[in-house]
Design goal:
Elements: H1 2-10, H2 33-41, H3 47-54, H4 58-67, H5 78-83, H6 85-92, H7 98-105, H8 109-118, H9 122-125, H10 143-159, H11 173-177, E1 195-198, H12 218-226, E2 231-236, H13 238-241, H14 254-270, E3 274-279, E4 285-286, E5 297-301, E6 304-307, H15 312-328, E7 334-338, H16 364-381, E8 387-391, H17 400-406, E9 412-416, E10 422-425, E11 428-431, H18 444-455, E12 459-463, H19 481-493, E13 498-500, H20 511-520, H21 525-556, H22 563-568, H23 598-602, H24 607-632, H25 639-677, H26 681-711, E14 717-718, E15 722-723, H27 727-752
Parallel strand pairs: 1-2, 1-13, 2-3, 3-7, 7-8, 8-9, 9-12, 12-13
Antiparallel strand pairs: 4-6, 5-6, 10-11, 14-15
């Protein structure tokens, strides 16, 4: 029955987006793509489902995995499968057709289509294309396949002569750790109110419907409160939280979502934490919707059009929906809006309002400010005291002043603190977009916008990245606490009222969040660093930890920041990102697939500068870690303090490995490009030696990170992307580099003889 149902669902998958549909990337380190499929899904998908997808028997799948040296497989819970869906999609994107991907996920096409569109721009992260993958079908192995399986197992045994770790921290183990209750210290007055962040492990898509994956369990709320957090946020989609009057099917289960929201608000309040909804409204709709509602159609982009907010009925929809949400959750702390994001919402959200017959005669400032006012009116109509926070993300520079002048006087204005901050790294001048811990704000854009807001009596907030950023999000926090403390002190001096502590990344209850809270209580940056180090690691380790935090901060200030670089570079994947002997032809995607697109990675930095700057960051981390490791071995520490310090060391070691690998991957691509242009043995031989050295370092970096991730399930994870890589991916990178070294380099050397 299940097979028949899945087969019927897969027949509908032709409506899913495909884009250019190129050939998938090559994976010559596996005997075939079936083996790649088994390897990549071994720890994430039950064996029976892998076999069913391939048309094989479970025993066939188990034989393949064990023959390649894999142990287990582990038991995979339903909760783990829910939490790893995006990881499963990403690792199978170049292996499976949509039909087989749906079988592995056990999803409907509608579910996958919604996830690709709404789960934090997932289809954009996937490159807005689906590689054309032929169906995978199991075939009994021949002698060549059996020999390659043995070779793979031998590589793993050779890399880990003592065997793979026998004790491993299961994927998502940190979720249970973050649910443990803690004692929250008494709270003193704090300058920054509110201080709110996103869940470290929430499912982004529809968190108010899936109660099994609670984004904010009580233990986690208590741990956030102990770290100085006073608010949390999650995404809200109006059509899923209130009746959508033109198509009620879009609002199915809205009452259940509202009830879950009410319960979450009540639970969070008991911990002294407010709940904020992120609204990016009204959502654009497919052109087909407007065949029956042509009067509502605004600016058109592709196959979607804006729901025109100049229409009275759309205005009523916005206000009525917000009011109904606030009535259902009367203690909601607030809502924050983005009115000019990547999503097409109002007709001027992407600057194309002149094409709308209703909005064309109105300015962008008038329309954008009006959307915020309509949402505020809904809040007040419900009698709610919820705060409206208007985020200026994406507002046109020429319209920002006028928008601020039109905002309701009881609204608050939020700006990205470091936006437009000028920097000079490696002799290259650039400006920071956002998502930076390496650059200490605030910058000129935020200062100007806050000044305009204060002139009207509006409260002000700064959006920062207190814990980590897209500079590196595969660790729970970047231990560059001096930068964080100084940023908070600068914002206190700027008289900013409140803080958004991070976008979807950075919600781990880290020392970074504690330092921000200490500065908000009036501590100097130096006092805050020492207070947090002493509380976390004890008085004996305090000095060494603060010294390391300062060194990590100085190293990170060498980071070659550019918004294009942090979006496309391989930093999030580090050693897990594969290398290829020939250019793949693929372009790097936004926090999705780095591929081998060096020119996108480096943005404005020449290749040599890109490599040198990442080496400076990595080497700075390495030097700072020496004393920390010595301190962790000293007898004066209690067992609790030693465990806490070792956890801190793992985070810093993982960060250093990501930075080293980023430099080495870029170096490999420069060498590969140079090799393609070489003509003589004299030119080629030193290049091949340098490539071999890079491959050997990447093997060692993948091996080291494998050990770290096996010991610490936080490594490699970020909420909106889930696991960038799992331990098996780091083993695959070892296979990848060994294949290049033992096959490709051998062939290149043979050409010179």
């Amino acid at each position: 029955m299940i097979l028949a149902l899945l087969g019927a669902l897969c027949m509908l998958s032709s409506d899913l987006p495909v884009g250019a549909a190129p050939e998938p990337v090559a994976l010559p380190h596996f005997p075939d793509r079936v083996h790649a499929f088994v390897w990549r899904n071994w720890s994430l998908v039950p064996t029976t489902l892998l076999a069913r997808t391939l048309g094989a028997k479970p025993a066939d799948v188990l034989r393949m995995g064990h023959a390649m040296g894999l142990s287990g497989p582990p038991k995979i819970s339903a909760d783990q499968r829910r939490r790893s869906a995006l990881t499963i999609i990403r690792r199978n994107w170049h292996l499976l057709s949509y039909d087989q991907l749906l079988q592995v996920l056990q999803w409907t096409p509608d579910h996958l289509a919604y996830t690709l569109q709404e789960d934090d721009f997932l289809y954009i992260k996937m490159g807005q294309l689906k590689p054309k993958c032929a169906p995978l079908r199991y075939q009994p192995p021949d002698e060549t396949v059996l020999r390659r399986e043995q070779e793979i197992a031998h590589v793993i045994q050779e890399t880990f002569p003592q065997g793979l770790p026998s004790v491993m921290s299961p994927l998502f183990h940190f979720v249970s750790e973050l649910q443990k209750p803690v004692t929250v210290p008494g709270k003193s007055a704090n300058y920054f109110t509110p201080r709110f962040c996103y869940s470290y492990f929430a499912l982004y898509g529809d968190p108010l419907l899936e109660k099994q994956a609670d984004p904010y369990p009580d233990g986690y709320l208590a741990q956030l409160a102990a770290a100085g957090v006073t608010g949390v946020w999650l995404q809200g989609v109006l059509s899923r939280l209130a009746p959508f009057p033109w198509d009620l099917s879009q609002s199915e289960h809205y009452a259940k979502r509202l009830e879950n929201l009410r319960r979450l608000v009540a639970r969070a309040k008991r911990h002294g934490i407010g709940v904020y909804l992120y609204l990016n409204e009204p959502r654009s709709l497919p052109l087909a919707f407007y065949t029956t509602h042509p009067e509502l159609r605004g600016t058109v982009e592709g196959d979607h059009a804006a729901l025109c907010t100049s229409r009275p009925e759309v205005q009523r929809y916005l206000t009525d929906s917000v009011a109904s949400i606030c009535r259902a959750a009367p203690d909601l702390a607030g809502m924050f809006t983005i009115t000019a994001s990547e999503n097409l919402t109002n007709c001027w959200s992407h600057g194309g309002g002149a094409a709308c017959p209703n909005c064309g005669a109105r300015s962008a400032a008038e329309v954008i400010a009006e959307v915020n006012r309509l949402i505020r009116d809904g809040i007040r109509r419900a009698g709610s005291q919820a705060r409206l926070i208007a985020w200026d993300w994406g507002w046109p520079d020429g319209s920002a002043h006028e928008i601020i002048d039109r905002l309701p006087t009881d609204a608050s204005l939020m700006s990205v603190s470091e936006w437009n901050l000028p920097i000079r790294r490696g002799g290259v001048e650039s400006i920071v977009g956002e998502y930076s811990v390496s650059a200490v704000g605030p910058g000129p854009r935020a200062r100007q916008h806050w000044a305009w807001a204060r002139a009207r009596g509006l409260r002000t907030l700064a959006k920062i990245q207190a814990a980590n950023s897209w500079e590196l999000s595969a660790v729970p926090y970047l231990p560059a606490l001096e930068n964080v403390a100084q940023h908070a002190a600068n914002l206190r001096a700027e008289k900013v009222d409140g803080l958004m502590l991070g976008w979807t990344l950075g919600g781990y209850p880290s020392p970074n969040l504690e330092v921000v809270a200490e500065v908000g209580r009036g501590a100097s940056p130096d006092e805050a660093l020492h207070d947090v180090a002493r509380q976390r690691y004890g008085p004996h380790a305090e000095g060494a930890v603060v010294e390391a935090w300062r060194a990590f901060s100085a190293a990170l200030r060498e980071y070659p920041f550019h918004i294009g670089l942090v979006y496309t570079g391989p930093m999030q994947y580090g050693p897990a990102n594969l290398l290829w002997e020939e250019p793949t032809g693929y372009h790097a995607t936004m926090i999705g697939f780095p591929y081998d697109d060096l020119d996108a990675w480096r943005a404005v930095y020449p290749p040599k500068v890109f490599i040198a700057q990442f080496e400076k960051v990595a080497d700075g981390f390495d030097r700072a870690l020496i004393k920390l490791r010595q301190t962790a071995a000293e007898d004066a520490l209690s067992s609790h303090e030693r465990d806490a310090l070792r956890s801190e060391i793992r985070v810093a070691e993982a960060a250093a490995l990501h930075f080293h690998s980023t430099a080495d991957q870029a170096r490999f691509l420069v060498l590969r490009r140079t090799l393609q242009a070489a003509h003589t043995p004299e030119e080629t031989r030193p290049l091949l030696a340098d490539i071999e050295a890079v491959l050997n370092r990447e093997i060692e970096q993948a091996r080291s990170l494998y050990t770290l991730q096996c010991a610490d399930s936080r490594i490699g994870f970020e909420a909106s992307n889930q696991y960038y890589y799992v331990p098996g991916d780091l083993l695959e990178k070892i296979l990848n580099c060994r294949d290049l070294r033992d096959r490709w380099l051998k062939a290149q050397r043979a050409k010179q003889e």
